[in-house]
Design brief:
about 290 residues, alpha+beta, Fumarylacetoacetate hydrolase, domain 2, five-stranded mixed beta sheet, globular
């Protein structure tokens, strides 16, 4: 099952096209692409057994963020060994956690406005929570996952790393810095949801390539560690970290430039495509 946000409406993407859920369910489920996760078990049961009508053609640019209004967006740093090495940092003993503010969420295809000359890329597998998780053991964690989707953790490195106190959440939350989609894919669609090929390319030049089995902290462990501190809520997103190949780790460093297109792919989930364009210029103010 592939659940999408088409022009702000909850939609199933099928082999025949897009099926509007509210219409197909005769109003049993509403049009809100985020609210459905509050009724995830009931919705999933209906969707698996429903006699769906033929889908309609759609324009992929009309797809919005797969989950547009999560209560919480978690992001994990340094979760692939090669990325920790290229960052010049030790492997973490606990998942480094920050947030990406939800106003940075965007659809899978569109323009990325560059506020500075130091915008970096980070291809990421994103987890969507399907029911409230509190003090969940890793062995039970997959039961709390509604599905997986593709994400990009675009990062303005100057703001992110400003001394003396880095601003990870702000540096990673400019408008459009968190595209997710094209759909939330349920686990039954994947042969092994813990081992998916992940990559990113800029104008056809592959800059990142790995497999999600290389995560230092697996999805079940992340859910266990996060839910030990606070409840994970239906519809919450977890950006699970990026593999090596980010621009800030290159020598010389490479950042996104206007006119470039970045394509992010994850096996079985689909792809994101962002065209970089000039944005309103941002400067980091000095401390007074």
């Amino acid at each position: 099952m592939r659940i999408a946000n088409l022009s702000g409406r909850l939609t199933l993407l099928t082999d025949t096209g897009a099926v509007d859920v509210e219409r197909a369910s005769a109003g049993r489920f509403g049009p809100d692409p985020t609210a459905v996760y509050q009724d995830w078990a009931e919705f999933a049961e209906w969707a698996r057994g429903a006699a769906l009508p033929a889908g309609a053609a759609y324009d992929e640019t009309d797809l919005g963020a797969a989950v547009p209004e999560p209560a919480q967006v978690f992001a994990i740093g340094l979760n692939y060994r090669e990325h920790a090495i290229e960052s010049g940092l030790d492997f973490p003993v606990e998942p480094p956690v920050f947030t990406k503010f939800r106003t940075s969420l965007a659809g899978p295809v569109g323009e990325l406005e560059l506020p500075t000359d130091t915008v970096d890329w980070e291809a990421e597998l994103v987890v969507v929570i399907g029911k409230t998780a509190r003090d969940v053991a890793a062995g039970d964690a997959w039961e709390y996952v509604a599905g997986l989707t593709v994400g990009q953790d675009f990062s303005e490195r100057t703001r992110q790393l400003v001394p003396p106190a880095p601003q990870f959440s702000l540096g990673k939350s400019f408008p459009g810095f968190s595209p997710v989609g094209p759909a939330v894919v349920t686990l039954d669609e994947l042969d092994d949801p813990s081992d998916l090929e992940i990559s990113a390319a800029i104008d056809g030049d592959q800059v990142q390539h790995s497999r999600t089995s290389g995560l230092i902290f697996s999805i079940p462990v992340l859910i266990e560690r996060l839910s030990a501190v606070l409840p994970l809520l239906p519809g919450d997103l977890i950006f699970t970290g990026t593999p090596s190949g980010v621009g800030g780790g290159m020598n010389p460093k490479r950042f996104l430039q206007a006119g470039e297109e970045i394509v992010t792919r994850i096996e079985g989930l689909g792809e994101l495509r962002q065209k970089c364009v000039p944005g309103k210029r941002h400067t980091t103010a000095s401390a007074s």
